[in-house]
Amino acid sequence: MKVVAVLNREGGMFRTLDIDKFCAEAREIFARGGHEIDCRPVPAQKITAALEQAATRSGGDVLMAGGGDGTVSAAADIAWKTGIALAVLPAGTMNLFARSLNIPLGLTAALETLASGEVRRVDIATANGRPFVHQFALGFHPRMVRMRKNFRYGSRLGKILASARAMGMVVKDPPSFPVELRIGNETMLRQVSALAISNNPYGDAPLPYAPDVETGLLGIYITRPLASRDYMRLMADIMLGRWRSNSNVEEMRAKEIVLRFPRLRKNANAVIDGELVPLKDEIVEIVIHPGALKVLVPGSGTPE
């Protein structure tokens, strides 16, 4: 097996890591398993071009993406469209898709697990044709990410602290907007503070990620308009893993959903796999594609 690893130099752990030493370790680990790995560290602004080149011109069997959820999402888009298998090397802050795939969060442990892993097919979702492997979110999350951009941070811990600070600011003035949801033949209008559509339903852990990415279903999570104190209570329920019992959260599942925004603002944003993106379309169709993405995961004999 030949693996081409594209590493985002500005992605989380790689900011302070000795990249040359890490790549030497990766080559040694994969060689022990009878495999080859081509390590390619690149700056963040060149990550997409490097991923495309690695997927289409390197002759590799597997495209490895090293970085945060944004880097992994970009790699999943390319892997899905080219048919190459994707390997996730978790070097970001949350590493949510890596958690879904049961990839260890320590870099050396992740390399060892992937070097003895196997290729499996899992689900991927699209929003108006744009793929995502974790989540499409509106309302609270995009506002928090936008506010976080006002703060400077240079480490994983700094990003977490900036997120907490931005979250506190949003809680003081929670968003509220109307959205029309169509699932099958049923159409419903909701006034919401937050809306999230996930690639497979979330588990019960405090972090919002899907423990199973082969159900063939989207998770749909609606939070009604909340006062600040209700948001604080919801945050506490999320941290304690009991958010499903919160009366302000509505959960549904579907293979596809169509969203329409009756009063879409010109500067509206969504968050797709952790990245802030402009929300330009009044109608967004979200579809899950069962088993459409090939990924390298822990082998059946590999301990989790």
UniProtKB/TrEMBL annotation:
GO molecular function: kinase activity
PROSITE patterns per the UniProt record, alphabetical: DAGK
Pfam families named among the record's database cross-references: DAGK_cat, YegS_C
Keywords associated with the record: Kinase, Transferase
Top-level division of the source organism's lineage: Bacteria
SUPFAM superfamilies cross-referenced by the UniProt entry: NAD kinase/diacylglycerol kinase-like
DAGKc domain residues: 1-131
Protein name: Diacylglycerol kinase family lipid kinase
